[in-house]
Each structure stands twice: as structure tokens, then as C-alpha cells.
Amino acid sequence: MLSGRRLDLLDPSPVDIEIEDIAHGLARVARWNGQTTGPLPYSVAQHSLLVEEFCQALRPDWPAKWRLAALLHDAPEFVIGDMISPFKSALGDRYKTIEKRLQRAIHLRFGLPADLPPAIEKAIKRADRASAFFEATQIAGFSAIEANQLFGAPRGIPETRIRTAPSAAVQTIYLERFGELIAAEDAATQR
Questions:
Q1: How far apart are CA 171 and CA 165, in angstroms?
Q2: 30 strand-pairing partners
Q3: Who contacts 60 (Cβ-Cβ below 8 Å, separation ≥6)?
């Protein structure tokens, strides 16, 4: 990685994880395997920012740590890439095990519990599916009917316009949002 860290994908250590590597990687990994409209790919970093925004809309009372968990929900993809769900399923438990180990190490690195409480995971998944719905219908060529069958219609989330941006700009925005959430969490724990 650009930080100089060497991350063991099969046995990841939290000390080998840097937010700059995550932001850099996620800003360059295309969602939908790059099969989207427009001149720029829609990145996992953009998706992660949107999921965190949706979580804030759904759960305005959440502490910063759960919004941070939402921002980091796809963080393992900074080194393993983004794969469509049917392919992940076809790969089976081995892929899921590697992804889960990475997610746990990332959580521990940034002060989150290795495994999130089920209610938090469920809310993040709801925001994730809403993001996928808007992405599918606006930039990935799905009809609203198809997207509704696959992801469900978003409830309690404002209509959102999906826009792509250059990876360097997205990386900066991702790092800024991470910094805001970490600062808010630090302030909350010092009270």
C-alpha cells in the first residue's frame, strides 16, 4: 500500500491499517464493476459516503461511532475490490471469512467493536440497500421495478441524485468526513 504498510489479507492486524490507504483504494474501486453511465466511474468511496448520509437521515440520534461504522461498511474493498453479490455468493464461505476478518481489523483500528450490534448492522444494511436502489436506477441501467425487486424501495430516505466525481476529489471528501466523525467520537468519549 502507499503508506508502506503490508497487510496480511488472511490474518490482518489493525496496526497495519491506515485510513489514507482505505480512502485511496475505495476512491479508485468502481461500484457495479464499472458498468455505469457517465464519463467517470462511481466509486465505493462515494457509495460509502452516501450510506453514511442515509444512516444519519434514518438515525439522527446515532453517536458518531455508528456513523463511522457506516462510512467504513465496505472498507475491506480497499484491498479486495468490490464484487457483485451473486459472485460473492458463488465464492462461498472462504471469501466471506476473509472479508469479515478485514472488517474486524478495520473496526478495531478505529475504535469500533470488532462485531457491530445486530441493530446497527441492520440499519447500515438498510441504508446500503437504499443506496444500491438509487445507484441501480440512476446510473446502472435498472428499471425501478427491477431495483425494487432486488433492493426494495427506499423508505424514510430522501430522493437522492447520484453523481460521479474524480477519484482524487472523492478521496479528499472521504478523508474529511472520516476526520469529522473521529473528532466527534473523541469529543463524545471525553465528556
A1: 10
A2: 43
A3: none
- The tens digit of pLDDT for each residue in 12-60 reads 999 999 999 999 999 999 999 999 999 999 999 999 999 999 999 999 9
- Helix 118-139 and helix 144-151: axis angle, to 10°? 160
Cell of 153: 424501495
At 93 the pLDDT is: 86
Residue ranges and CATH numbers for the domains of the chain are: 14-189 (1.10.3210.10)
C-alpha cell of residue 57: 437521515
Cα dist from 96 to 18, 43, 80, whole Å: 22, 21, 11
Helix axes 44-58, 64-71, angle to 10 degrees: 150
101 CB neighbour count, 10 Å cutoff: 17
Give pTM, 2 decimals: 0.95
Other C-beta atoms within 10 Å of 74: how many? 21
* CA-based end-to-end distance of the chain: 36
Asked whether 171 and 23 are in contact (CB, 8 A), the reply is yes
Cα(100)–Cα(4) distance, rounded to whole angstroms? 23
**Residue 95: predicted pLDDT:** 86
pLDDT at 177: 98
